[in-house]
Amino acid sequence: MANLKDLHELGKQLRGEFEKVFVPEDVELPISFKESVKEIGDYKYDYKKYLVHIYSEQLNGYIPNQWFIIASFFVDYYIEVQKYKERIVELLKEAGLNKADDRKEILAKYTKLLGEISKKKSYEDAKNDAKNLVREEISKILSKINIEGEEKEKLIKFVSDYEWWYGGKTIDRGDFYVSPILSLAKVVNASHSYIAEICKSYAEKRSTADALRENYISEKQKEQQNDLSQGKRSLQQIFYGAPGTGKSKTIKDTTEKAEKEERVFRTTFHPDSDYSTFVGCYKPSMKSKDRIYSAEELAVKLKEIKNSGVTYPCHKFAAQYWRSIKDLSADAIKQILIACGFTESMNVEISKGVAIGQEYLNKEEDGKIIYTFTPQAFTNAYVKAWNTTEDVYLIIEEINRGNCAQIFGDLFQLLDRGDDGKSEYPIDADTDLGNFIAKELTDSSRTDFPDGVKDGKKLVLPKNLYIWATMNTSDQSLFPIDSAFKRRWDWKYLPIENAEKGWKIKVNGNEYDWYKFLEAINKEVFELTHSEDKQLGYFFAKAKDGIIDAETLVNKVYFYLWTDVFKDYDYESQKAFRKPNSNDPIAFKNFFEELKNDEIVNEGMAEQVLINLELEKRNKPDSLFE
User: Fold this and answer.
1) Which has the higher per-residue pLDDT, 334 or 363?
2) CA distances to 131, 595, 597, 598, 599 from 592, in Å
3) Of 94, 189, 408, 589, which residue is 20 to 30 A from 253 by alpha carbon distance?
4) Please, is 210 exposed, middle or buried when counting C-beta atoms within 10 Å of its C-beta (0-12, 13-18, 19+)?
5) Which distant-in-sequence residues (6+ apart) come within 8 Å of 238 by Cβ?
6) What is the mean pLDDT of residues 19-29?
7) Measured between alpha carbons, how far is residue 519 from residues 525, 536, 610 in Å?
């Protein structure tokens, strides 16, 4: 029995790995590769910087270096699809089809039937009819020679369901592998077919192909890291993917230094978010008393007043900041005076100034309710960015949970950035917002203000203001983002992958690998929904000391699967939530029934889901003698 891999899953996996790193741009091939691969078949190679001159007695042309990179990602698929063909041909011979034409007729039958039936029926109906007829015939042939089970089902799919293995050309053809490889790489078949031939040659040079692929992946990862460290970040970017893929964590890790320096501003969109909660508005507030300054801040204020050249600087200083000074100790006031070049004797003048302030500057309106402009995340980030040349980040969590058109309003226009990083099209600021911004930018030392920006009349995003957002693809139906808004952002997909934290699930006294669970349950989710949006990422649940306990597993993970995934499908379609030795589904309440000792959830029932997914215990003995 041949150990055949699932061609559909293999293709999906390889395509994911390819799309994760491949960038359609000019690339130089490593010297080691050029020295190792100087010809393929009848064709010889002359390597240029970004192209390869390929020639033989019959052909003379050029192909891009990219083709060699692309082919290196799909060698495993080529090898596997050839194994399928070799195996089905072997079995057809064993079943008595000794003539090549007889075998060819069987292998090409699906396409032939499809063409005949589609003349009488719709293409979809013809496709189903042709598939069923071929399935029935291949099933009989394989049963005749006692081929059953998983191998039989895979071979039947291979011959009758071309979509399952991404096929196009009939299996009897020598170049049948070309279509699926080009389909997986998403390239144009007619002009890129040589990619598949390169892939074929790699089957005999696996180490060369693997080295080329790993080198390419390594270089792309270095480029990404360099882009981040050198500030080559996208000004407006949406990190998207399934829940738990680490979108927020990626942003947090990237902005860690800025966070410590208070250059990161965060907000979370929700259905009730609007312009006022994003930008700001007038709100009632209690008239506050003067701010209380520290001794160090007061020393700076006194120096500023002294350097301004006013007469009686100590009087003015003490009267203006009397609330902050009145409770200071005599020694603290002495240190302030000395730091500013005054003698201790000026303490008397300080006392006079404090008395004047208390008498004449104690405002009667303190404590009354007044209306003031209250800035929100956007305005705070905007003002901060124009007050510094350091990078400032506005982080929007769950951007698609709010109505972006309503929230951004006319700020939408600012998202068009020029080559200099600033908004190409300024907008007018409303009076309240403009007055607030003008006041906040008064002391800015920047010299690159566009006209009207510093005085608050115009709004322009500075080149150092980054607006980054996260989006769960499972929630994208809440508020669809229109195409005009989408095109003003760069999009970064975060796939589901092993973060290699070594997290474990601990339940009912046993331990299971967290990522193995994710792989198993995500396969269930995909087979049920035919979508990756509802799958779980590595950081969907938080481990404590590397452990995800039974309570977290049930209340966080199972609850999500129960309410957001499986509830919309009949339970006959899934195997995870089934009772032991039974076809009956597990009701969610079963996780909280028949509790033992100090259990918070029924750990035996929680473990049953893992058993149904055929996961291995991580704490099982490595040896029978342990």
Assistant:
1) 334
2) 46, 7, 13, 12, 9
3) 408
4) middle
5) 399, 468, 469, 470, 471, 489, 490, 491, 492
6) 82
7) 10, 9, 12
Number of helices (H) and strands (E) in the chain: give both, helices first: 28, 16
CA separation for the pair 263, 308 (Å, rounded): 31
Q: Starting at the edge strand that comes first in sequence, how are the strands of the sheet with 504-507 ordered?
A: 510-513, 504-507, 547-549
Identify the residue whose tokens are 């009632």: 284
Nearest to 524 by CA among 535, 514, 538: 535
Q: Shortest CA distance to 152 belongs to which of 161, 144, 143? A: 143
Residue 187 is predicted with a pLDDT of 78
Rounded CA-CA distance 337/316 in Å is: 14
State both tokens at 443: 């002391």
Q: What residue spans define the domains of the chain? A: 7-217, 236-282+371-492, 289-360, 504-612
Largest CA distance in the chain: 117
Q: Would you say 579 and 612 are in contact if contact means Cβ atoms under 8 Å apart?
A: no
Whether the pLDDT of residue 622 is over 60: the answer is: no
- How many Cα atoms occupy the beta-carbon half-sphere of 389 within 13 Å? 5
Higher per-residue confidence, 557 vs 366: 557
287 against 77, higher pLDDT:
77
CA dihedral for 343, 345, 347, 353, sign (positive or negative): negative
The owner of tokens 């209340």 is: 555
DSSP run (H or E) holding 339: helix 330-339
Cα separation, 618 vs 510, in Å, equals: 8
At 292-350, the pLDDT tens digits run: 888 888 988 888 888 877 788 898 898 888 888 988 888 889 889 988 888 888 888 89
Looking at the predicted structure, is the pLDDT value of residue 497 above 90? no
Residue 72: count of CB within 10 angstroms of its CB: 24
Mean pLDDT of 586-602: 89
Tokens 């309106």 belong to which residue?
Answer: 365
CA-CA distances (angstroms) from residue 17 to 25, 50, 109, 380, 515? 17, 23, 33, 40, 17
Nearest to 577 by CA among 565, 568, 585: 585
The reported pTM is 0.54
Q: Answer for the pair 85, 176: CB distance below 8 angstroms, yes or no.
A: yes
**Rounded Cα gap, residues 605 and 446, in angstroms:** 63
Encoded tokens for 299: 């020393």
Compute the distance between CA of residue 316 and CA of residue 349 in angstroms, rounded to an integer: 10
H-helix or E-strand containing 351? helix 347-360
CB contact at 8 A, 330 and 367: no
At CA 555, angle to CA 551 and CA 557, rounded to 5? 105
Q: Is 65 helix (H, G, I), strand (E, B) or coil?
A: coil
In CATH terms, 236-282+371-492 corresponds, of 3.40.50, 3.90.25, 3.10.450, 2.40.10, to: 3.40.50
Q: Single out the residue of 33, 53, 32 nearest to residue 43, CA to CA.
A: 53
**Residue 170: exposure state from Cβ atoms within 10 A (0-12, 13-18, ≥19):** middle
